[in-house]
């Protein structure tokens, strides 16, 4: 009887330790938006380029990424990235907020939002 209760407690303990070790447990809200610490990270730049490229395909425009101004990420079934981007269309520069949902194990990225930044 005693060993029947030990396994679930042990399993939950391992789960909690893995969350704390990954930085999700302490000070983070699971499912909440967290700031991206390094906006110059190669992966973050790939996400930003993807967002602009995908928006260009969907709206038949020729925006070009200039700079990532701000970024947040959210753990979901994968990862959501919410980026504030400075883009140009010729001589005009504008700011947009893009949201990309990524599921790396499926090699999947989806632009879920691309709107003028407020």
TrEMBL record:
What SUPFAM superfamilies would the database entry show?
A: Cystatin/monellin
Identify the stretch annotated as signal peptide in this record: 1-25
UniProtKB keywords: Protease inhibitor, Signal, Thiol protease inhibitor
Return the Pfam families for the record: SQAPI (PF16845)
What InterPro entries does its record include?
A: Cystatin_dom, Cystatin_sf, Prot_inh_cystat_CS
Q: Which GO terms describe its molecular function?
A: cysteine-type endopeptidase inhibitor activity
Tell me which residues make up the Cystatin domain: 28-117
Query: What protein name applies here?
Result: Cystatin domain-containing protein
